[in-house]
Write a structure and sequence with these properties.
Shape: globular
CATH topology of the largest domain: Jelly Rolls
Order of helices and strands: HHHHEEEEEEEEE
Helix content: 10-25%
Strand order of the largest sheet: 1-2-3-9-4-7
CATH superfamily of the largest domain: Jelly Rolls
Largest sheet: 6 strands, antiparallel
Number of helices: 4
Distance between the termini: 9 Å
Radius of gyration: 16 Å
Number of domains: 2
Structural class: alpha+beta
Length: 210
């Protein structure tokens, strides 16, 4: 079972657009676009069908596949779920021999968390094809972290720095500070928010269903 998101994405404020002035962003957008288009073709899905399954518009998907728009982390997870892949499999492959993968800070493949112009940033830390996906988020107190999130498998949230509140629908909410961790089934609808004046650095580890 892939990732599922009950809420739809708004394209009113699209994600960062690749430009010649930002070669890293341009190359990431192009690589993601090629990966999405290739996976869609392999599955014989129309652009309309994939867009509907991922909860985004067809024109927005076209921009992504053509490398004109860098999708947010949430959109990346939506597309991965609709294609039956992990988000890491849609990101540019890390350089290095398998099975060893080293992710250097300066080689970060960062993308915005949501399509909002005021979104925090995230980066996938694991190479494609691994059994777990680890994502680092750096989000300011006034930055957007998106709406309700839902997935297959298990989730682990670790706060490396700062303070956040994790709300799980129908279950309650928990405040987590630096060094705190929380695990829960991905099928539970959940949302995070940063509390306090400082930004938060959060590690999300997703272990998909086999």
């Amino acid at each position: 079972m892939g990732l599922a998101y009950p809420e739809t994405v708004s394209e009113d404020t699209p994600g960062a657009t690749a430009t010649d002035d930002d070669r890293t962003e341009t190359s990431i957008a192009a690589a993601i676009g090629r990966a999405v288009a290739s996976a869609r073709s392999d599955r014989k899905l129309s652009m309309r069908a994939l867009a509907a399954e991922a909860g985004i518009s067809q024109p927005f998907l076209s921009q992504i596949e053509n490398g004109h728009t860098l999708p947010s982390m949430l959109t990346l997870y939506r597309l991965a779920g609709a294609l039956g892949l992990s988000a890491a499999e849609l990101m540019p492959a890390a350089v290095g021999p398998a099975p060893i993968h080293v992710q250097r800070r300066e080689d970060a493949r960062r993308v915005p968390v949501t399509e909002s112009a005021n979104a925090g940033m995230g980066r996938i830390l694991t190479a494609s094809g691994r059994r777990v996906v680890a994502t680092e988020y750096v989000v300011g107190a006034d930055e957007d972290m998106g709406d309700w999130f839902q997935s297959d498998g298990e989730l682990l949230v670790y706060v490396a720095d700062g303070r956040i509140v994790v709300t799980i629908e129908g279950q309650g909410e928990w405040e987590l500070g630096t060094g705190d961790a929380m695990t829960y089934p991905g099928e539970l609808r959940n949302v995070w928010r940063v509390i306090g004046p400082e930004s938060a650095t959060i590690l999300l580890v997703h272990s998909p269903d086999a």
